[in-house]
Specification:
Helix 8 (100-119) runs antiparallel to helix 9, helix 20 (305-320) runs parallel beside helix 30 (581-596) and helix 44 packs parallel to helix 46 (861-868). Among the domains are: 1-44, no CATH class; 56-162; 185-317, Leucine-rich Repeat Variant (Alpha Horseshoe); 444-555, no CATH class; 753-888. The longest helix is centred in the first third of the chain and has 20 residues, at 100-119. The protein contains 47 helices and three strands. By secondary structure, it is an all-alpha fold. It is flat and about 90 Å long. A three-stranded antiparallel sheet has the order 1-2-3, with no helix packed on it. Residues 393-410 have a biased composition (Low complexity).
């Protein structure tokens, strides 16, 4: 270390002692002599002496250097426990330094010092806990932003690597963080401390989080003065829920989450939408269905476009939480494209269309199979012969999210749920003037062409919503359904007049020429309508839409959520929400399909076809990367009917789309019927043609997939269709492609080994095209294929000796040294080292030894080296050596 003050004090003396001509500049005169003197003085000091000298230096640079070299000083005195403690005691002086850069530099070294103290704990007991941890915690409230940031980073690193004792975390760290989030704390410090608490929660576990952090976290969610604090709480809400568990989430956290979702700052609501999946995963199916669904709908209909965008991006993930947690092991994993899903097969082993991919059956202890039915509380075994009531009410909130979301806390039972079919037949239905019931038959009743305002009393939007909400629990009754549809139309008109978005009403189908259409009314009166209005074209349109809506019905998730998900392919969504909303829809489609099960694939079929034909290649690319996962979910019958045509279209798409299919070619083809799979043998050669010839990774991926495809086809198919591809890839211009293809050829040898005729023809062509190739790269390829075939036991001893050994040994006289180098490796490291020819005929053994001796006498030093390094060299006879010497 250098003290600049000393250099400056000596500058005048040095100028007096040297002439101007002796040095080119004044800086030379000052630095060189004083630095040498300084080094000689430092060498006489002990490590503690140097530390004491510069820790109080007036020069900031010196104090920075002291902080930076603390670890080196500790290592220098590590053998003496008292000296180590003395070094750590002097750290307190640096901690009180007035210069922020010195304090920040000290925090940069804390992590490394902690590791040193842990490794030397017998000699430095509790040193870190006593001397350094208090400094780290104190700096969390430092006035300087840089010091606070470095201390926060240091604290999180220490916690991640478990360098802080659990007792110290509870007694030293947590209380300080809780105090920093007090109402009277500095705004920036409070926000940063809350962020640390949220990040610490998964590290410290449920017990500490519930006892020390959870009360303050709930309080900060309601901080009226600092929206930054509320935003931090909203962004990390899911992590806190996952740590504390379902009971604490539903009792304490959900009311705060409802408040955050209706916050007056759009950034807070956006953060809630982004973590919705994690929050939902910590709740029960009943809460998820009855409360979180309506809350999520309010986010989808939020006035802010950014909130709506985040909500639609999280919609597929939220839907996936409705899957049964007992039998569906799905998980979202960020990767290059799309998400991966752990998809279990049907329990009973069947893969028929009627068998859902999940929740198919359960086996009790007696081995009996019980049918699973979905209830409001989740999945339960059912032994009843009658179909269970799968209609679950979903109360959908108003488009105005602020007051109504928080007006009814989640722990209260809604008024309409106090009545059920067990106690009462149904809730009394309000008297509503239904003009459509009195329509003359001349009018096109199929579409009920009445204005919404004229067909219902002059009720306000609030009253209409209350009526609909009271009727929702009994929506299965056709009469009640008809009344709800009338009220829905009136509510739509009122909403349009006030220029407000209506989230769940967008899912209702509308007639192309009318204001609205009521599918349930159309269905209940279908026979009479067909009789009286058979020639009405509007009627036909309405019936078609009714049937289409019926085809989208299911009972796994709330229908409103599915309707919103299906609307993500609507072009208007791209203009009003997100230009890439279709890509997000495609990204989460496998998760939604798994949740619904293959029995409800009809709900997603049209949406998948729309995405597959989207003009944006990124959308099609996303589907291409996940089509094999979807095929695993749907089973072979649905895959052949609905996915194979789309798969074929992807094969002819842009390279950006084709690569998604190519990367999972084996995974998709193995799910197909053998006859369908065999048809793709004719199309594999199309992968050799790319939009850009420089895209060598495309061909390398093809070679890797062909290695996997060998097990799906017969030896004759491999010889007829895959052999030309393999030989073509072996001559690729890019070496990486060629080396992968050599592995492919060796595996083909293994595949054809069971058929002598095919193997003979294959090896003969291999010798002709590569061993006798005019290009040295071809001859080198032959040697490498032989090496792989030997090391991986792809061919028997007799077959190798008969077809490959003689051509291989001929390469000993190859004019290119690289070919002879690989031959020497093959003989010494593969043949002799594995004693491949230990029991072979004497003629082969003799020829092998003579070739090796010739390579040992090669003019190229690399050839000589690889030919000499092998365990079997001592077995080479002197006769072979002399014979070979005379030959060469």
């Amino acid at each position: 270390m250098a003290d600049i003050s000393l250099l400056q004090e000596d500058s005048q003396e040095e100028l007096d002692g040297f002439g101007v001509d002796d040095y080119s500049s004044e800086s030379d005169v000052i630095i060189i002599p004083s630095a040498l003197d300084f080094v000689s003085q430092d060498e006489m000091l002990t490590p503690l002496g140097r530390l004491d000298k510069y820790v109080t230096s007036e020069n900031i640079f010196n104090r920075q250097m002291v902080a930076r070299s603390l670890l080196d000083t500790l290592k220098a005195v590590s053998e003496d426990e008292r000296d180590c403690i003395a070094v750590l005691e002097r750290v307190g002086r640096l901690a009180d330094d007035s210069e922020p850069t010195v304090r920040a530099e000290l925090m940069e070294q804390v992590h490394h010092i902690a590791i040193f103290c842990q490794e030397n704990r017998p000699s430095i007991p509790f040193a870190f806990s006593k001397y350094l941890l208090p400094i780290v915690v104190r700096y969390l409230a430092d006035q300087n932003n840089q010091v606070r940031k470095t201390s926060q980073t240091a604290l999180l690193e220490l916690l991640e690597q478990e360098l802080i004792e659990r007792g110290d975390v509870e007694t030293q760290v947590c209380p300080v963080l809780v105090d920093l989030t007090a109402p009277d704390s500095n705004d920036d410090v409070k926000t940063e401390a809350m962020a640390i608490i949220c990040k610490m929660a998964p590290m410290v576990g449920k017990d500490i989080t519930e006892r020390l952090f959870l009360p303050r976290f709930c309080e900060m969610c309601c901080d009226c003065r600092m929206f930054h604090v509320r935003k931090v709480c909203a962004a990390n809400f899911g992590e806190i829920c996952s740590v504390v568990g379902g009971e604490a989430t539903e009792e304490l956290l959900l009311p705060r989450f409802f408040q955050l979702c209706s916050d007056n700052v759009w950034g807070v609501r956006k953060a809630c939408a982004e973590c919705f999946m994690s929050v939902s995963s910590a709740t029960s199916q009943e809460i998820r269905r009855t409360k979180l669904s309506s809350l999520f709908i309010s986010l989808i209909s939020d006035p802010s476009r950014w909130v709506r965008q985040a909500a639609f991006q999280s919609l597929g993930q939220f839907i996936s939480t409705f899957a049964s947690p007992n039998s569906v092991g799905q998980y979202f994993k960020d990767g290059e494209e799309g998400k991966e899903f752990d998809t279990p097969s049907c329990t009973n082993g069947n893969h028929q269309e009627g068998c859902p991919q999940q929740d198919v059956s359960i086996h009790n202890t007696q081995g009996e199979v019980g049918v699973l039915c979905r209830t409001e509380t989740g999945i339960a075994p059912s032994t009843d012969t009658e179909s269970p009531d799968l209609s679950v009410p979903l109360s959908i909130s108003s488009p105005e999210p602020a007051e109504e979301s928080s007006a009814q806390p989640p722990d209260r039972v809604p008024e309409q749920e106090l009545y059920n079919s067990f106690h009462f037949w149904r809730t009394p239905i309000a008297q509503i003037d239904l003009d459509m019931e009195l329509l003359p038959q001349e009018e096109p009743a199929s579409c009920v062409s009445v204005q919404a305002k004229a067909s219902t009393p002059a009720l306000g939007r609030k009253q209409l919503e209350e009526l609909i909400e009271n009727l929702e629990p009994h929506i299965d009754d056709p009469d009640v359904k008809a009344q709800v549809d009338v009220l829905t139309a009136a509510l739509r008109a009122a909403t349009l007049d006030s220029h407000l978005e209506d989230a769940f009403l967008e899912a209702r189908e509308t007639c192309p020429r009318r204001l609205t259409c009521f599918p349930c009314v159309c269905q209940s009166r279908s026979s009479s309508l067909r009789m009286h209005h058979s020639d009405d074209s509007d009627q036909g349109d309405c019936f078609g839409q009714a049937e289409e809506k019926k085809s989208k019905l299911q009972d796994v998730i709330p229908q409103a959520l599915l309707d919103q998900y299906l609307s993500m392919t609507d072009p208007s969504r791209a203009q009003t929400v997100d230009m890439e909303i279709a890509k997000h829809c495609a990204y989460s489609l496998p998760g939604v399909a798994m949740t619904l099960g293959r029995q409800n694939w009809h709900c997603l079929r049209d949406t998948y076809e729309t995405l597959a034909s989207d003009m944006q290649w990124k959308v099609r690319r996303t589907l291409a990367f996940s089509i094999h996962e979807l095929a695993l979910i749907l089973g072979d019958q649905l895959t052949a009917a609905d996915l194979v045509p789309i798969f074929n279209s992807f094969l002819k798409d842009l390279d950006e789309v084709r690569v998604g299919v190519l990367k999972h070619l084996y995974d998709f083809l193995k799910l197909l019927h053998p006859e369908t799979r065999r048809k793709y043998l004719y199309q594999l050669q199309e992968f050799l043609v790319t939009d850009n010839s420089r895209n060598w990774r495309f061909r390398s991926e093809l070679a890797e997939q062909l290695v996997l495809l060998l097990e799906l086809y017969s030896g004759q198919d491999v010889y007829d269709y895959l052999r030309p591809l393999a030989f073509s890839l072996c001559t690729d211009r890019v070496s990486s492609v060629r080396w992968t293809s050599y592995k492919l050829v060796s595996e083909m040898i293994r595949k054809l080994a069971s058929c002598q005729a095919l193997l003979t023809d294959f090896l003969s062509e291999l010798v002709e095209k590569f061993c006798h190739s005019p290009k040295w790269s071809g001859r080198q390829a032959f040697a490498f294929v032989c090496q792989l075939a030997i090391e991986d036991d792809c061919v028997s001893l007799e077959q190798f000796s008969e077809h490959l050994l003689a051509p291989l040994l001929q390469l000993a006289s190859d004019p290119v040294a690289n070919v002879r180098v690989l031959l020497a490796k093959t003989i010494s490291q593969s043949l002799l080292e594995r004693e491949y020819f230990l029991h072979s005929a004497n003629s082969h053994q003799e020829a092998l030894e003579q070739t090796l001796v010739a390579l040992q006498m090669d003019l190229d030093k690399d050839v000589k080296y690889f030919a000499s390094v092998h365990p079997g060299s001592t077995r080479i006879s002197e006769d072979a050596m002399s014979t070979t010497s005379s030959t060469y």
